[in-house]
Amino acid sequence: MDVGTVPPLQLGFVGEIEKQPMETEAGGSSNPARGRKRPPSPPGDDEEPSESTPSDDDDEWSVSDNDNQGADCLCTLDNFPKAGCDYEEQNHILFTYPNIELLGPLPIRLYPAFKSGSHVFGSDYNLHDTSETSITSVRDCSTKCRCGPMFLLQFIDINIAGYHHARPGPARIFGFVAARDKVQPLRNYVYKRDIRNCEAVSVKQNTGMARLSLRSPIRVISMVSHALIEFELCVQTEDRPDDEPKGDCLIEGCTEFTNFLASKSYIEHRRLYGYNCALDVKLAVLINAIEARIDVKVLRLGAIANGINLKVYAKTSGFREVIRLFEGAAPKPGDVMCFVVAVETYNYLDLYIEGSPGDSAVLEQKKQARSSWKCSFGSGYHCSDEQVAELGNFGEVLVNVNWKSYRKRQS
């Protein structure tokens, strides 16, 4: 077997490894890596991707918004801290607010959004340019491989928290969340919706929390030592005069995530406090990693009266956190969905795909009638793998995983 690749295997894990504590800006020694990492079991000689109907084995792929509230969350709308981008207000949140660590994820400093003129991150990240990043070309390795591992950032979940939603029904969110890195300091969107395509989200009454449906970035996000996220999120309003804005700003600004000391990959879960709400960001920092580019092509859909929903989930490098790549109505046959996920070298990308009845099906029918497929793909420079995911009566999809590094060693 080529030492640069790890073969696919059927899912199965043994043991758990706790990540090491790291220093945080809020002071003290805390562990941002609240997730636990599980090394995959060694592959057997005859193992194939698994196809299954609902079972206890699928519980490890179940997701809940309660997972994103922090270790000992005691925060409700009644005691939720509010703060602007002012330096002193953020210092109070970070260093002197009583028991801030019990109110949710540890805070990280919220910096003002760039509008014009100077900004603390303006020159480092080219903030005046709001263009979207593109896929970076890399040198050919046809004669000799010069690929090297990268330090990468992988978003897992983003939630708003502490938002008092006084209107009936869901909140309709629009705006953007984007990352910038030093490879190409342009916006790499992980959330982007305009007011005509706002997202209807359910807001929890007691905590004001709502999860945003992230999209895949165009390429993986580099984080050799630091990376920036910037955001502007608004909520749609319906009762404004025609000559007034149709949305209120929930939170806007930016912050920088840094990694100077870590030698092992870890999960970080942080909260940015604003005036109207907070933004909770859960991400993985992956040391010695490469990009997995995942193409999911719908080959066939079953004849289901209520239509078909698909879920495409991922886990990276043995971490238990589920990355929700897609949830919604299945695309038409022939359509291709593309995602990128950061994965450690000599490790695994775990994929889970589920077919179920459409949204109009009754709840009990949706619980019982679903079919899932899961497989692990070993990372390696220049390698690729293709599998067909059989989803019973719901159809089948073609999964193609290609691996890529944007870092090249000098000749």
From TrEMBL:
Listed Acidic residues bias regions: 44-62
Pfam families: DUF6598 (PF20241)
Source superkingdom: Eukaryota
DUF6598 domain ranges (all copies): 152-401
Region called Disordered, residue ranges: 1-65
UniProt protein name: DUF6598 domain-containing protein
InterPro entries, A to Z: DUF6598
